[in-house]
Amino acid sequence: MELTLGPLAYHWPADIRRDFYARIADEAPVGTVYLGEVICSKRAPFHEPDLPATIERLERGGKRVVLSSLAEVMLKREREATAGLMAAEDHEVEVNNAAGLMDRGRRPHRIGPFLNAYNEATIAWMAGQGATHVCLPAELPGHSAAVAARAARALGVGVEVQVFGRAPLAVSARCYHARAHGRHKDNCQFVCEDDPDGMPLLTLDGKPLLRVNGIQTQSESYVELVEALPELAAAGVSHARLLPQAVDMVAVARVFADHLGGMCDATEARARLAGICAGVSFSNGFFHGVAGYRHIARLGTAH
Amino acid sequence: MTGAEDFSAAGELVCPAGTPAALRTAVEAGADTVYCGLRNATNARNFPGLNFTPEELQASVAFAHARGAKVLLAVNTYPPAGQLALWHEAAAIGMRAGVDAFIVADMGVARHIAETWPRARLHLSVQAAASSPEAIRYYCTHFGVRRVVLPRILTIPEIRAIRREIPCEIETFVFGNHGLMVEGRCSLTNWLTGQSTNLDGVCSPAAEVTFERADDGTMRSCLSGFTIDRFAAGETAGYPTICKGRYAAPHRPEGYYAFEEPVSLNLGRLLPELMAAGVHAFKIEGRQRSKSYVRQVVGAFRRAVDSIRSGHDPDLADLVALTEGQKETQGAFQTKKWR
Amino acid sequence: MTATKTLAPIPFPPLLPVGLVCTVLRPVLDRIVRRIAARHPEIFARVAPYERSDFVIVPQELPFALHLRPDPEAPLLRAVPRNRLPPHEARIEGRFLLLLSLVDGESDGDAAFFSRDLTISGNTEAVVSLRNALDDMDGSVAQEAADLFGPPGRAILAALRRRSGRQ
Fold this sequence. Notes:
The complex is a heterotrimer of chains A (303), B (339) and C (167). Chain A has 12 helices and 12 strands. Chain A is globular, with a radius of gyration of 18 Å. The two termini of chain A are 23 Å apart. Chain A is of the alpha/beta class and 303 residues long. Chain A has an 8-stranded parallel beta barrel with strand order 1-2-3-4-5-6-7-11, surrounded by 6 helices. Chain B has 339 residues and is of the alpha/beta class. In chain B, strand 5 (122-124), helix 5 (133-143) and strand 6 (145-149) form a beta-alpha-beta unit. With 167 residues, chain C is an alpha+beta fold. Chain C has one domain (18-138): SCP2 sterol-binding domain (Nonspecific Lipid-transfer Protein, Chain A, 2-Layer Sandwich), CATH 3.30.1050. Helix content of chain C is 46%, strand content 16%. Chain C has a 5-stranded mixed sheet. In chain C, a hairpin with a 6-residue loop joins strand 2 and strand 3 (76-81). The chains are: A alpha/beta (303), B alpha/beta (339), C alpha+beta (167). Chains in contact: A-B, B-C. Chains A and B meet through helix 4, helix 5, helix 6, helix 7 and strand 7 of A and helix 4, helix 5, strand 8, helix 7 and strand 11 of B.
């Protein structure tokens, strides 16, 4: 199974972003890196100028680079950005909105997690239209993911599952970061930049529950599927996605690589992750078909 | 199936029915079209005690057709891998009952219906989240979709612009529960309850809802034990829907409606503009609501649409009264500032 | 949608012991629930997952509550003193006229709840199932119950409807 680094969901300042990808290029044991703004079209101008250099740097580090498209496409600039990306010939693209599918036509592409490829019929349809790789939605339970993966592999399609990072739970037309600061999307002043790992939302009795990232709502806890990796691999899942969080992602990638390489067991891998992600709680409920926030300790309870 | 015929004139009223009695109520109150679902996960209102058995659907379609009304079957959830049979069966039940169209979201389901029954009419559910001309054209081109239900996030000028670029009819929500997240892209309920909106058709399922009262008269509404909101004594309470809850943020320790206040969508005032923008059909939300709701809301919108069609101003007070005492919004439709 | 907040309590003979009232009501309520069960099996199908569940319905102004078990084989509806409620799955409480208008198909349960005129506790899903079941009926439970007792029944219902502000 190959490790990938999913697209950065947050609005990190350009210099931090540059440094981050430079380090990923040099040190992270991942095979593929997804780049591009998936959440908010207003952010794109801040890092697009750096994109060619980042791509070049990652490729020099031996990474395959895939360009991801916006999850929400509504405004003219979002439609144009999507169409422009889908015209790319020199890089693979990951499509996150049906507008991108229309633009891309039958030219090869990857299906992103926002496209709701929940089942074998949809995956077969997409494969027939040129999809070469599918990232399954985060909420698909493990037993369904296994069925989807087997069907996809039979069609020669790569299958990817998120195994690390906050669960993407919802997107909206409204920016909740702006709303939290009494603004709206058009005059947001990029306040989301202040929260490199999302803005916490707590219940009124003080329990951390969700994170706001612009128009996106994420989970408070990080998804962590270390223990499920053998089962996912056995079902035909070819790629394991790590989502960038504001922690040492090189160290995170090394934990997963060591575990996949048989150099540390699941218990040790989880202990190392807990050390890297101090103060963060972990969840794997979606995989086990129960409430996503939960963490089920033992493998096999999904059946 | 009424495959080829033109479905509607502008202003078709598409009304909810959670039970056969509600369907009859809607038709008698003036619905042009009623939408409903089967009693399982194949539709996005899979709530306890709600929806239709195959026999009830058959009888209800006959009732509606005898009175000149159409029936749409929502098969608008996403089948998880390995469970397609339930969705295929739902489509077959709809065909046997003679429904006038299917409301679909999943590409696999759309393709199945389009290939199995080429004359079947397909409407694209709001759950498909098609909010651009390109996305809508994708479904029209590949699955023969004849109408799109637009997400509740577009302004009227944006709707008018989309209308010019797509080959199908437009349906918009005009009244009812106002969803905040992009529909078909929300796993909040699954995160807290283990039941998915997209896969199981539930949103804040009642089985996980509790209301806890304190001695001082305050009340907490909870989902799976998580506090979604807290109400002072006598304060208007809301059902604990996650996207309408009150939360605290680091700089908002007092708590605030992080996503939206518990409000209803009411576009009564905008009906003439929406009709002028080329909207074919107006959808009223609320399959989970009672007959009494259906009777009042459908009746009021029927009178309003008829007034507009005959060149008169609609009685707006009548429509506004529907949400009297509760907060209402025109959401994204009126201004981009909503975003 | 509800207009019951300012209404006076239902006049009720204060001297009758509650236990006696419950006993007197027994055959009346029994007849009502059997009639509804016989004529509307579809209602019971909608609440089938809770057919062995006990619901307690508490009209605020009355000294007794109603105990309902929607079992199609042995439907149960009886009056019980408010201080001796049986163990129950769910409890629904509100002013009598509001509860009446809900089973009369004239009030919207959501609206009533959002205005906090109606309070529910216990198993919310059971209550929602029951509400949806009762809503799937042309006419109303209240009307059928009244019809069962001929002109006097209909006269009482008409009087109650007038009290709750309807024609």
